[in-house]
Request: fold
Amino acid sequence: MSTSVPKARPVDQELAAAFRRDGVVVLRDVLTGEQVQTLAAGVERNLADLGPLGMNATQPGQPGAFVEDFRNWGRIPEYEQAIAGSALPAIAGALMGSTTVRLFHDHLLVKEAGTLDRSPWHQDQPYYCIDGSQTISFWIPLDPVARPSTLEFVAGSHEGTWYMPRSFVKGTAMVFDEGALEEVPDIDADRGAWDIKGWALEPGDAVAFNMLTLHGAAGSPTRRRAFSLRLVGDDVRWAPRPHRTSPPYDEVDLEAGAPLDHPSFPVLWRA
Ligand SMILES: O=C(O)CCC(=O)C(=O)O
Reply:
């Protein structure tokens, strides 16, 4: 973890090409020690006072805890403080090839030590109310993450099929009607058949991935706090779905097909 403010790091073409090709890249030392500490303080504040969308996604009877919360940007000041001054919004613009970067939402994902629950393989965009291809999530660990516990990705899976979003806890269909989308393939049944990418990570590192890239994670023997920052670019449009999305945006009254020009989606960076 670096302790100084990193110099503005232009995203090199090779990294942007890898993001376009694989739908995921790793960014080392992208946050300063101070930014990590600020974010971690926000996570602790958030855990002590979950918002209305917060939940424990641990399977009943399983050890540990898998705690999630969404959309706390407006009430946990450390989130904006850490991210707005960071290199991430500009990196998002460069990786997405977008002239504008908006916040879509923040997502807290904490596995307490000894949690066995997997984060099942899934894509994120089918859970959301957006269409478009200029999307990016930064998965930002606030504790060291060993390779077996890290978030893994199927390289190239952002290019095609949309898979059915299901509740992590109950496995029930969400957002779309049952049968409306293809099921996520059983990747763990034959891991060698897929181009699976994943990295051991330290605080200060992040992985950046497209919202259609298939990803999943094992449980964690050690505490694993992660903050996911979801950002969108120029071509993203509002797309109402048949059922409630995760997270929901009940206050947003945009027309289908409209750009996300709404106070719920503040612009974090412009070219
Ligand atoms: O943190 C995890 O275990 C899952 C993360 C995830 O699915 C995401 O950030 O989209």
Summary: The pocket of 2-oxoglutaric acid is lined by residues 107, 109, 119, 124, 137, 139, 151, 215, 217, 226, 228 (CB under 6 Å).
